[in-house]
């Protein structure tokens, strides 16, 4: 599905982007339209294709960071990288009246400082080191980082690509999670897709844009895509709330009599919405682990196989998450072989996830 967004990357200044971190990349180009800058497919891209793998331009390796930390990291960049940094979009210049007027005095002093600095960056009249970082940064294992090429990918609540911090190779990756046509815009989902439309629109204010993708359309018609998507997301959020507290071990999960049914419903809704993300992989994994505890090895193997396929689609095979699921698959294979008297069962079909 083609995505439509109000661009978060409407940067001013000269753009001189040869899009790839890998120089011979020919999947997409960065171009300017009436919405601003975005990444557009140069050719058809199959689901599961790695479109981009990129090291950070600037990174902060601490969970609690402040304006001074970002400015100190920026000062260490080369003049060329500092210039590239300021080519990126800044969501400054926002109307202070659209934001709360104060910070809760009961919060710790450091948290109040962080919130105040973020607010100052968004309402300031000029782009700053802090405002650009706040607009474009992404979470990494122990902090946040800004990626020059990744920052050109716009948002859609029903995105066709997925970003993932691959700790093993120390790179942010982007994979196609749907088949993409030539000329189609490549989009990422910046936020938790389970959130309702009102919450999502509030989140987008922090980046200075409003989303008009199909999921953010008019929900007054119950037969519309937006209305059906809203129902699916509400149910996913509900199911997540009901199951998350049990997902500590297979035994604890099975102590909830509805756990298997709820997790299977979550799979169905993920597939309906096209959420081929790591969250879906973890749902399949947990279903497989529950089946293993029940000694239902046939369904355990099937679920873990699906989990492995989803991780490969959205994250690749060079991340620790893929290796962890692969270890489970190997263990189940050994159990199955033992139960069969040393004869391995035929390998399950490797067809792509539905």
From TrEMBL:
Q: Which InterPro entries match?
A: SET_dom, SET_dom_sf, SET_domain_protein
Which SMART domains does UniProt cross-reference here?
SET
- Name of the protein this chain belongs to: SET domain-containing protein
Q: Which PANTHER family does UniProt cross-reference here?
A: SET DOMAIN-CONTAINING PROTEIN 5 (PTHR47332), SET-6 (PTHR47332:SF2)
Q: Which residues form the SET domain?
A: 25-191
